[in-house]
C-alpha cells in the first residue's frame, strides 16, 4: 500500500466528549468517525484492525470445530415472544413495526433465531455436538453510549451457540469455547483474565467473563494470586468476617447523634470504629405484591444488587421512597435501624452483620442512634441471613483464604451454559439413541469484536499514541523516507525495500506523501504501527537504513542486505 | 473439511412459496433458511459462497484504487432530511425512533453518511480522486419480498462512492468503476450485460445497470448485436416508426364498434390493422395542481411510465379515475380519443402517433370510434410530442438502425454519476488549486452481493441441482468414497488424496459420512460442487480413481499418481 493511494487523516485534538484514552486515540488516528451517539463509521485504518481481529476469531473458531453461518440482523418479534425475552429485555432492545405493522427487533444476540434453525435442522443425537457461530452487527439502545467503541449502540459481535444431547456434553462444549476464547485473546496479544460471572438476563447457571485488564475498565474483578479463583465482583462471594458472635458486653443505650445521617459520620461523632456500625437499606417489592424489606450491612460495606436480586421475592426490588419509609418507620432515612420495627418488615442481615455484637444502629428517631445493640437480647434474630455485600479490599478468597487481589477490566467475552432455557421455549428436540425425544442442552458464547479494538488500545499506548500489537495492527511496518519526492536514491531505495517486504508477506505501507519528517513521524507514532523503517540519504550512503521499534522507541541501523532477515526477526519478537 | 464435522442438511422438497429455480435449489441444498418474509439465514454452505463473492469484490475494488471502510447500518434521519431523501423514499425506507424519540433509518444505501464523512475529511483538491466502498447489510421494506435472495428485505450490498474535483474527473471514476464491475462479474463467471439505465430516486444523469442474463429476470434489456448499444427497456429510446406523415386519403367517419373497449378488439371489429389504431390514456397531476393529460400511443404499443415521468409537470402523475374521465370526456373509458375534447386537456402524442394519418381512435361516445382521422384536418396538432412508449420486438437501435435484440436480466450492479445532488445538500466542498471553495462531484456504485448468488444459480443448474462456477462454489472438489467406514483401503486412500489436494490450496471437502452412494451422489449433485472425486475399492485395485465433472456429467478414470496434476488442469479449464 502506498500512503498517497490511501486515506490517512489524523487530528491534532480529540473531541471533547472523548473520556478514555482509546476513544481519544482512535478518533485522533482517524480510525473511527462518529455519525450519531454510539454509532460510528470504521474508517479505512480502523477497518483493517477490525478485519484482522475477525480473521483471528474465524480461524480459532473453525479450529475448535465450530461452524460459521450468518443470521439476520432484523428478527421477527414473534420468536422473542416465545422465549419471553421480549418482556425481559428493557428499552435497550430496539423494536419497530414494518410496513405491514408486524413487530420486529434489531438483534442484540441471536438465541431465538439459532434455536428456530436448530429446531428444523437437528433431529438426531448423531448430529451433536454442534456449535454454530456468526460474526454480525448488533444493536443495543444504550441509555448512555460512551467511550467510543467500548459502549456503542451499533457494534460487531461474534456469537456462538452450542447444542448438545446432555448437560455433561454441553459442559464439554463450554470448555471447548473457553479454550477457543483464551486462544483468541492470546493470539491478539491482550492481557486478560477469565472470571466467574453472573448470568444476567441471558439465563442459565454457569458463566465466565473474559476481561481485558485496564485501569479504565468499567468492571471490577477479583482474583486470588495463588489459586485459580477469579470472579467479577458482582458474583464474588464475600466472606463472613466474624466467625462466631461474641456475648454482649454493653448495654443498649440511646445516643444523640445530631446531623449524622451516614455510618461514617455516626462513627466519627460517637468515636467508635466504623465496623461497629450497621447500615440500614430499605427496599420494596413491585406494586402488585408490595412488601418492605430492611437489609443490613456493616457500615463500611456496600450492597451488591445482583446478590440481592437472587433472593426469593427480591428479583424485582426497588429502593423504598422517603414517603414509604416514613409510613413504616415514622422516621426519615439516615436514622433507621432494626430495633423495634413494624412486624410486617422482613429483616435480612449480611452474614457479617448477623454475627456482630454491641453494634451501633439508627434508633428510628431523628438524630438518634442506639449503641451496644445485641441480637436476641435487644431485637429478634434477623428473618434471613445472606451474602448481600460486595467484596472489599482485604477480603479473603472463599476457596483458599488468601487475601483477594483487585483489578479493573473491560469485558471482551462472555460464555454461558444455558441448559434448556431456550431449547424448551422454542422446542429444540432430538431423538436419542433409544429413539426417544429429548430437549437439547444449549450454551451461548459472545466476543465483542469492536470492543476488543478499544481494549487493545487501552493496554497499548503512550503519550505519542497507539502501540498496536502486531497481530491486529493496520499495517505491520511503515516505511518512512525522508525526501521521497526530491531525492532519487531515497525514493528508489524506499520502493525497492517496499517490494522486498511485500514479497515476504508482511503487511507494509510506504509513506510516499513526502511530508515533513516531524509531521510524518508524529503521525505514524499516533497511528501506532509497531515497526518503522526510516530511509535517509545519509544512511543510504552507508548502505544502511534505520529501524525504529514503536514500543521502545529503540532505533537500530541495519545494512540493507540484512534488512529483511532482521525485520522478520524483530517482528517475531514483538 | 470433513463432512462429519460440517453441517450439511438438504431437503427433498422446496417450500411451496419458492417460485424460481434459484430459490428452490438454494433452499433444497441447505444454503439459506427463511426466518421471516424476505429475511434469511445464510447457512454454512451458503455463507461460503457469500464469502467467496465478497473476497473477489474486495480484491477487484482494491485493485481499482478504491478504499474500504464500514459505515453504520443505523443512520440518523437528520442526514436524510438534509438530502431530501427522507421524503422521496417511500415506505421501503425503514424508519424508527430510538429510546430518546430521535428518528433513525436502517440504511438502504449510504450516500448521506459518506457525504457527511467526506465533508469532514476532504479539504483539498489534492485528496481526490477518492473512492470509498463498504460491504454492509442493507434493509428495504419490500412490499412483496420474493424469489429468495433475489428480492429479499435484508441483503448485503457493496456500495462505493466517488469524489472528484470536476465532472470530467468524475466520469473517469465512473469509468474505473464500470471496468471494476466488469472484472468482478467476469471473475465470478457470470454471463452479464451492462446497459444504459434510468437514475430513479438516486438522482444524477448518467447510469448503467449490470444484468445477469436469465430467463427468470425481472427486467427486460435490449441491445444491438452489431454495436455496443444496450439499454434497460425503461430507458431505451423507441424509434419513430413513420418518418413522414402521409396526406389524408380517407374521410373521418363515425363507426359503431359495439363492446370493443381495447384497440385489439376495435381493429378486429373494423377489420383494420391494429397499427392503424390509437390508444388513449388519461393521466392526472397531483391534487395540489390538478390537470388532465391525454397520452396517445399506437394501438399495439405500451406506455413507458419512466419516460412519462420525465416530462415536465408529469413527474408525479397518476391514472385518472373513471369519475374524472367522465367529468372531462362525458364518456367512459374504452372509447376515448383526441377529437373534439375539452380545451383544458393537454394532448401528448408519441412520436409515431404524431406522424400517423387515416387513423382510428375513440369518439368519446360509448360504443363508437372514428376512422380516417387526420391531424390538422380533424383535430388540432398535439400539444407536445415525446417518446413515451416501450421499445417492442422489431424496433431498431437508435444508433445503428439494426433490429434490437431482447433479453431478460437480473440487476446485479448499478452505477450512477450523481453530480452535486448530495455534495451540495450536505456541503461537501474543497479548495481548488486557486484556493477557492468548490463543490465535489460524486458518483455511487452498487453491487447486490446476495443477489449474485441467486443469479449465478439461475444461470448454472440442471434437473439435478446447482452447478457452481468454481470461483464461488462452497467447495471446489468433493471426495466421495464408497464404503468409507468398512473398507480400510477406501478410507486410507480418501484421506491421503484429501490431504494432497488440500496441500495444493484447493478448497476440498471429504464426505466421510458413509452414506449410501445413491444418496451421497444425489446430495452433491444438488449442492453443485463442480468436481467430484469418486473412490471405490475396485478402482483402487488398479491404482485409479474416478473424476466426475458436475456440469457435463463426464467421468474419467485417472491413475492416482497423476490425480493432482489432472485435477488442477480440469479445474483450470472449468
Topology of this protein?
The structure is a homodimer.
Chain A: H1 21-28, E1 32-36, E2 39-42, H2 44-63, E3 67-68, E4 74-76, H3 77-83, H4 85-88, E5 94-97, E6 103-106, H5 111-121, E7 130-139, E8 154-164, H6 167-188, E9 192-196, E10 206-213, E11 219-223, E12 230-232, E13 253-256, H7 263-270, E14 278-284, E15 292-298, H8 305-309, E16 318-319, H9 322-329, E17 346-350, H10 351-354, E18 359-362, E19 368-373, E20 384-386, E21 405-419, H11 421-425, E22 429-431, E23 437-439, E24 441-448, H12 449-459, E25 461-462, E26 465-466, E27 477-481, H13 488-503, E28 508-510, H14 517-527, E29 531-535, H15 537-541, E30 544-549, E31 555-559, H16 563-573
Parallel strand pairs in A: 3-7, 15-17, 17-20, 27-28, 27-29
Antiparallel strand pairs in A: 1-2, 4-6, 5-6, 7-8, 8-24, 9-10, 10-21, 11-12, 11-21, 13-19, 14-15, 14-16, 18-19, 21-24, 22-23, 25-26, 29-30, 30-31
